[in-house]
Write a structure and sequence with these properties.
Number of strands: 18
Strand content: 35-45%
Distance between the termini: 147 Å
Order of helices and strands: HEEEEEEEHEEEEEEEEEEE
Strand order of the largest sheet: 4-7-5-1-2-3-6
Helix content: 10-25%
Radius of gyration: 40 Å
Structural class: alpha+beta
Oligomer: single chain
Length: 276
Amino acid sequence: MMKKALLLAMAAALAISSAACSKKEEAPAATTAATTEAASTEAPAETEATEAETEEIEEDYASGEITKIDGTVLTVQIDDETAVDYDIADAEIVQEFPLSEGDLVDITYPAGSTEDPVPVLYMEVFESVIGLNTDPSAEGIVKDATMASLTLEVDGTDYVMTKANAYVVAKEGITVGQKATVTYLGDLDDEPMAVKIVMEDSYDTPEAEESAFIGEVAQVGEEGNRIVLESAVGDFFTFVSDDIDFSGYKEGQTLQITYTGTIGAKEIPAVAVVTK
């Protein structure tokens, strides 16, 4: 009887010990499950934030003419009836010359924007008023100079230009090894015609701001308000003026005509004439 009671007591003790061990082993599983549940709850919020950060702004586009410039705000005439104010303060801008009224531009802005002025994301000037009235120029080091040509080194590349018709502004003449800015007509890679050569020692002079062409008189208009000069390579340039009487000049004379605008224009406005 005593042995039976002892055996029952031992069996009960073993059952209690086994139950305790079972509970201890299950605890980590419960903790892991809770952690997994918490992680799965947080994941969607992080995904939504990432998607919001990488979402691209929808864009819209417009093209037109700048009719007014007020600081960073441009008024652009889109068509005959529509003019829109755009703010370019934070825009990426592609331009070769300073902005001017009359410039033609392509504008990219946020689609559906209700802001006034509309913020601009990107703007490109595809036709500049200043550019249309400015001849191209290049600055470099004079490598060689003869009566007929000039070699200018620009960013490590040598370019040869004809110079027989060039207006030269230089205190010490064209000097090899010195810096110069050359205004030219044509393709820089294809022996263009130098129209104006300004040496560095004369950059700040009033003469450097003027544009002039030297050539031989090929024709004088009957009314005296136009004259045609021929270049050394046989190109013709027509100068016009309502204030200058060209009738006194003869074919074959060499003249220096100061002008405005670009030498590539069909008719070049003349402002002064000097016999050379």
